[in-house]
Every structure is written in structure tokens, then in C-alpha cells.
Amino acid sequence: MDWGNAIVKEIIKEDGNMTQLVGVLHLEGSVKTTKLKLTWLAETSELVNLYLVEFDYLISKKKLEEGEDFLDVLKPCTKKETAAVGDSNMRNLNQGEILQLERKGYFRCDVPFSRPSKPVVLIAIPDGRQQSVLK
Asked: For residues 15 and 13, what is the distance between their CA atoms, to the nearest angstrom?
């Protein structure tokens, strides 16, 4: 972190899956002026399975008109779950703790780590900038 940028020169794929990036370190680069960003974790057996949960507005408009039936403006899908993996330190999260995921936002731990087969559940905290999480 905070080393500048790396410029990707080549993407190597095997069977359609990206397996390697070849690049050069650009220490003078600025994270603020770089348009495309990439975040990764080393592939280890210590990674923690996650479910990132985001909730959207229940209705599709800001204000109901007089006599309008709210059932007509209910959104069909207001919950989005995304499978992810996290750093091994996420095993230490307690229920209710708040953390920031790089370039993703703030989340509250709803279900902490109990065993490798059961994912940690993190609920997104709205920041007021996003119009709709479900596209």
C-alpha cells in the first residue's frame, strides 16, 4: 500500500482464467489520478469466506401520491448478497464491529467467524452517495 502504482503490461490466462499479471512498479504514480484500480489478497488457506449483504430502497419513488397503493411501487428485489473472501484477520471480528473494505465501503459484522465452512456476514452501511445498490 502507498507505493505508487503498478502498470500492467500483460495479463496471462489459462483456460479463460486470469492466472498472472505482469507489470512494472511506477513509484511516482498517484492513486487519486489512476482510473483503474485492483485490490487482491494472496491465495492462502487462511482466507475467510464472506457474504457481503447490501439492502436497497423498498419502494421505487421518494414519495407516494395520495391514494397510491404502495404495492404498485415495491421493488422486486431489495437485497443483494455477494460472495467474497477476506483477510485472515477477519476471523477476529465480533458481531456489531464496523470495518472498511478497500474501495467497497463500510460494513457491520452481523455473523462473525465460527468455522471455515460458514461465511462471515457483513452488512453494508449506506453512505448516502449511492442511488441504488441493486442494478
From this structure: 7
Beta-carbon contacts of 106 under 8 Å, excluding residues fewer than 6 positions away, are 98, 99, 100, 124, 125, 127
CA distance 93 to 58: 29
Summarised one tens digit per residue, pLDDT across range 5-39 is: 888 999 999 999 888 889 988 888 877 788 887 77
Q: How many residues does the chain have?
A: 135
- 112-133 pLDDT, tens digit per residue, is 999 999 999 999 998 877 655 5
Per the CB < 8 A criterion, the answer to whether 108 and 97 are in contact is yes
Nearest CA among 59, 107, 115, 117 for reference residue 82:
107
Of 12, 7, 40, which is closest to residue 24 (Cα–Cα)? Answer: 7
